[in-house]
Amino acid sequence: MLRIAHLSDLHVLDWSGARPLEFVNKRWTGVLNLVGARRGKHPVAVAERLAEHLAAQIAADRVDHVIVSGDLTNLALDSEFRRARQVLDRIGGADRLTVIPGNHDVYTESAVQSRSFETHMGDLCAPDAAGVSQLRQQGRAAYPIVRAPAAHVRIYGLHSAVPTPPFCAWGQVGAEQLVRLQTLVAQEPAQVRVRIVVLHHNLHRRGHVAEATARLLDRAAVAQALRDIDAQLVLHGHSHPAHQGHLAAAPGRAAIPVIGCGSSTWQHGGRNGGSFNVIEVGSDGLAAIRAFRAPADSDVFATDGRDLLGDALRPDRAIAL
After folding, report:
1. pLDDT at 16
2. pTM score of the predicted model
3. Running DSSP on this structure, what letter comes out for residue 171?
4. What b/e sequence results for 215-228 when a residue is b if at least 16 CB atoms lie within 10 Å of its CB, and e otherwise?
């Protein structure tokens, strides 16, 4: 059994070394949020606790690979990327991690142009030096990324994050990236049985404000591409509450579970000591997905025993695009 942990939206904060001129852009709105409504909502200590726990799980052969579906940072500052990388390095080496960017990781146009995410995280996206170099040179144009945690499993990481105006956080994958996804799938070796697609933005609808300012603009096209490649699972971040749903089955195909673990560090009244999901993959397909949580005053992560995969495939959980 291959076990893959899924984290998201760590929002590691670190102001150290930041210069005033770095905030003469959209970042000033982010600062207002961080000292206001989101003050203390994503403690770095929680991210570090998660990292230490997952490192122990890997050492004990209870977790084989870890996916982080974006928003490692708040403002895409280099200091935040460095601190976030220190957190991830506690988990394990690059062969154990797959990371994609979220909208907060491309918070400004300058962060996109300087390839900040790829500079700090490129080796957690690509399997070799050539792939890392391509990411750092081309940025978004080099996605999707491909990882192979087992011979019969492929992880495809899409880049849905784009710079947006203040108070907006919408995303878009784009037609070119979806064509590249289909090309990569067509090149798979015959033994691949399970395709896991990861993107930051959610596919399901949310409230009116989120729909207006933070939705995935091309979610219908993305959903069709996922059906076309016969994806077995879609993982996402962006929406901080956990989510389970599915894309209705295409003719001759199975429904596709779509699961978000929520923000792994988000504080609900200070009660969250860290959270993540674990996907269990057998030789022929998905076996189960379970959520693990720790209360804020404990280092003990436990599951309530529910199978999130079954929850996602319930008839009332079909995603309306």
Report:
1. 85
2. 0.96
3. B
4. bbebbebbbebbbe
CA 14 – CA 194 distance, rounded (Å): 37
In eight-state DSSP terms, residue 143 is P
Which residues of the chain have a pLDDT value below 50?
none
Number of domains in the chain: 1
| SS3 of residue 183 by DSSP | helix
Residues spanned by the domain of 42: 2-317
Residues 6+ apart with CB under 8 A from 158: 100, 143, 144, 173, 177, 181, 197, 198, 199, 222
Rounded to an integer, what distance in angstroms lies between the CA atom of residue 198 and that of residue 176?
17
**Taking Cα atoms as reference points, which of 55, 73, 72, 75 lies closest to residue 64?**
55
Contact 316, 204 (CB under 8 A): no
Q: What is the CATH number of the domain that holds 228?
A: 3.60.21.10
Bond before 166 cis per omega within 30 degrees: no
Q: In what order do the strands lie in the sheet with 272-281?
A: 97-99, 65-68, 2-7, 272-281, 286-295, 302-303
pLDDT of residue 299: 84
C-alpha 18/C-alpha 16 separation (Å) is 6
- Which letter does DSSP use for residue 21 in this model? G
Rounded alpha-carbon distances, angstroms, from residue 259 to 1, 24, 113, 302: 20, 36, 31, 19
Q: Which residues pair with 279 in a beta bridge?
A: 4, 289
| Residue 111: CA count within 13 A, CB half-sphere | 28
Integer Cα distance of 84 and 68 in angstroms: 11
Measured distance CA(308)–CA(19) in Å, rounded:
44
pLDDT of residue 219: 97
Q: Find, among 139, 300, 319, the residue nearest to 226 by Cα.
A: 319
What per-residue confidence (pLDDT) applies to 102?
Answer: 98
Residues 99 and 68: beta-carbon distance below 8 Å:
yes
Q: Give me the pLDDT at residue 160, please.
A: 98
Amino acid making up residue 249: A
